[in-house]
Amino acid sequence: MAENSPTAAAWIPSPEEDSGSLVESSARIRKVEALAGKRPDSFARLRESSLGSFYRKHLRPYAAVRWAVQWIWRHGYPIYVNHVATRGQRGHARRWRRLIPLSELVRKKRLGSCRLVAACLVETPQPRVFPADDRACLASPHERYEFPEIFVATLPNARTYGGSNLVLVDGDEVVCHDLYDFARDYTSEELHGRTLISAKRRRIRWLMNDDQPESVAEAATFVDACAINYAHWLSEVLPRIVLFCAEERFRHVPIVVNDGLHRNIMESLLRVVGPEREIITLAVGRALLVGQLHLTAAAGYVPFGQRNTRLSGHSHGVFSPQALALLRKRLGEPARSADAAHWPARIFIRRGSGARMLANTAEVETLMIARGYTIIQPETLSFMQQVRLFANARIVVSPTGAALANAIFCQPGTQVAVLMAKHQEMIYRYWCDMLTPLGIDVSYVLGELVEGSKLGIHGDFLTTTSHIGDLLEALETT
Prior knowledge:
By secondary structure, the chain is an alpha/beta fold.
């Protein structure tokens, strides 16, 4: 689409002296790699089959076919697992196990634990919305909620798997975090065929199997199915890591994370854990047996998907302000430039590729440039360049997308505006519930999905420039 072509080159900061060697220089990374010739889960095996190849090449472009394939997978695969895959040699390994929240396991087994952050009340005010007629989309179901305490529990003889934040313990139990809603939340592990969950009975079948697990005496696991996503990493995984590493008693404990994480994600990890701590990267499907496994409670959570769209009250995300504030203090505050003139004060984030594209990008960018905003393409920047950019910005305008998670590094009082499509399943309050408790002022401009879009909340969308003009007037006079 010609009207979607960018109008100006994106701004690029001057080269950094410290941006190129941090990941390569760490000699403390131990990799537990995938076993040769073994696919980690059923989804990967199907994807690489001739049938999967045919689907990707010839059928995937058709929305009706995509919907049918997804429906068959979500409803048909559980039937196959329950009646076919649980027979034979691996049947016992795929038996039903109890799915138990971490705090319940601690009470039941009287496990040792260490509190990192106390429970706190989180305010959920109404953000500004343009046009004003759409304010109801951002209405909060409550004025405030309590985010539970964050603690570290030590689990004896536990097993952590690459590709999942679920942990296997003795006694036919699998541990999940306390924010998981059994009835409403659909997990990435289920989509990829790594587990099968019975939400009503709170049971799980574990479908990954590693016949050659590695073992360590002690470690802390931060493996997560969604860690490859930059926003999930910054708002859910890295805050847990920064809290854990801030506790002196854990200063020598190795950290376990996903293998294959993006370079920028690995840089963020290394800057938090420091040069001395050992890091173990765990490939999807590989298991690590740990004599003393330290498991940190959730510091933030937004569900991967909805299990049942007929239910209401699906979460738009909950986050610990203390954990995010500590991450900002650790990385964002040192990144504020002594010479702020080197960094643009008003920025517009260009979404380079993927889903949820702004269909009238060129039109919007023309308006933004005329108002003195600098165009930024985050995927061209290193991790610390992104941190410094957001830490020094005063106004940020961006379509919804993972790069906007960098706004957690903004200073209190920064104005952040989100461009987003309207859809009945959209998690509108994700950004304001994450950023407002950090003292960041969040506004929204809601647009319409492109006509004919069959991708739901992931579809491209259009915004009205007059609404963006109203937004800018409000931001610039605040």
